[in-house]
Amino acid sequence: MEWLADLSAAVLLFSLLMYLMLDGTDLGAGMLLFFFEDEEQKRSIVKSMLPIWDANETWLVLLAGGLFALFPAAYALLFSALYIPVFVMLFCLILRAVALEYRETVSVETRRWLDKLLPVSSALAAYCQGACAGLIVSGRFSADAFSWLGLYPVLSGLGLIFVYLLLGCGWIRWRVGDGKVKGTLRFSRYFLLLNLGLFLVVQCINPAPWQHVWQLAWGKGLIILIILLWLFLLSALQKLSPFIQLALSLILLAAIVIQTAAGIYPELIPGRMNLHQAASGDITQMFILTGIAFVIPVTLIYHSWAFWVFRGKIKSEGK
């Protein structure tokens, strides 16, 4: 049943989107710590992340586990080439967790080191994620352990860093406020321009996904939506409320990811393997998808509850 492979791919794409939007925002906020020196500002940024960062990584676990169970052939091929960036990413996520959780319990001197560790580990994790995606989408996938250091993967890694930084700016403006953490609106414009520049370069290097999507009836609408979002954010960023800025940035990220996925469909690893070649047996897929059908709603409910409980602006110490 070929539709099972399509459904499995859609489930993994949803998990990927949720991870990029949720944990990507946290990684962006963590990277922004590099740009601030005031202790109260740093504390407010970290406090905005603490209640939710670990739950956001649930989607990464679901994505990796789902790929292993639903597309084992692709899992084996991907990790034979990407084990170095994946290991670096996971190690950096662990370092980020240490920096977040222990920041308030260590000495002032150690805290300074953790404040350096948090943005560096967040940036490296983001870069590795983008580089892995870039290598897969490029159509030049190779089992060479260092193929992820090519031009297209490197630009994709840098692009994802700036996407996360843009999301982080919107998050901090919304959860902390411009009054407490000044400069995030200015940073937003810089990161938006850097995003657009790298995005255009990457599309020029590998225009195949865009060209494929443009041939689809709904694909033209998606591409037009992406262009309109870019133009609106560039022209109206200064006037947007923090929440609207964050929401539009998340929609832009989701639209680009969907466009990229549609651009390589039905290939899973362009030039090497398509969805149906990589998929596990029908019974296995049905069994795994049944479990995921329970896990995803529960995870979404938990996320919604956590956001509701910790809603509102971050308050300063003693308030």
Describe the structure.
Helices cover 78% and strands 2% of the residues. By secondary structure, it is mainly α. The chain has one domain (2-296): Formate dehydrogenase/DMSO reductase fold. A two-stranded antiparallel ribbon has the order 1-2. The longest helix has 31 residues, at 2-32. The termini are far apart.
CATH class: Mainly Alpha
Strand order of the largest sheet: 1-2
Helix tally equals: 13
Number of strands: 2
Helical content (DSSP H or I, runs of 4+)? over 70%
The domain count comes to 1
Rg calc: 20 Å
End-to-end C-alpha gap: 59 Å
Report the major sheet: 2 strands, antiparallel
Task: Flag low-confidence runs.
Answer: none
- CATH level 3 topology: Formate dehydrogenase/DMSO reductase fold
Which class do the helix and strand fractions yield?
mainly alpha
How would you sum up the global shape? globular
| Strand-residue proportion | under 5%
Order of helical and strand elements: HHHHHHHHHHHEEHH
Give the overall pLDDT as a whole number.
90
Corresponding CATH architecture: Up-down Bundle
Membrane topology: Multi-pass membrane protein
Subcellular location: Cell membrane
GO molecular function, one term: oxidoreductase activity, acting on diphenols and related substances as donors, oxygen as acceptor
Transmembrane segments: 12-36, 57-75, 81-99, 120-139, 145-169, 190-210, 216-234, 246-266, 286-310
